[in-house]
Amino acid sequence: MRYNAPIHRRRKMVASHLAEELMLKYNKRSVTVKKGDTVKIIRGGLKGHIGKVASVDTKKMKITVEGATTAKADKSQVAKPIDPSNVIITHLDLSDPWRSKKIEKGKIKRKRKIKEKKEEKAEEEEKKEEGSEKKMRGEKTESNEETEVKK
Predict the structure, then answer these.
(1) Where is the domain boundary, 44, 72, 93?
(2) What is the pLDDT of residues 110-120, one digit of tens each?
(3) Does 33 lie in the same domain as 9?
(4) In this structure, are 133 and 63 located in the same domain?
(5) Where are the beta strands (DSSP E) in 33-113?
(6) What are phi and psi of 148, to 5 degrees?
(7) Among 56, 78, 111, 118, which residue's beta carbon has the most beta carbons within 10 A?
(8) What is the pLDDT of residues 130-146, one digit of tens each?
(9) Can you give the residue range of the structural domain that contains 112?
(10) What are all long-range contacts of 8-11, with beta carbons under 8 Å and residues at least 24 apart?
């Protein structure tokens, strides 16, 4: 299915994971690789190499990284195609306004989720405090009433 996919779908398949600090910043695990992104190779013979993406080949679903080359028999250097799953993006190229807008949406959603979680925790803590205060006073709480009814 992957290699029979049309090119407009393959473009999304040429995606890579973000580095941990970018993942936390933008609330996204992976993003489509684009020319100009800085990546670090994490698998293969060129492991550890850091460079900018020179080109993205959606037809072959490979990327080329500046400085990631292999020697031919006549000693000339040629760019080595790398699978995007073998790299992590360390710096995003946000010169495209559409791309930066899409990525910022994830950042806003993350802030909203964090705020909601804090509010939920605060509400739960208030309920626990109220329940413990009622027990100390000897008052009946909802859970105590239910157990008495069952008896």
Answers:
(1) 93
(2) 667 777 788 88
(3) yes
(4) no
(5) 38-41, 50-57, 62-65, 69-71, 77-79, 87-91
(6) -65, -35
(7) 56
(8) 777 766 767 665 555 55
(9) 97-151
(10) 10/58, 10/59, 10/61, 11/58
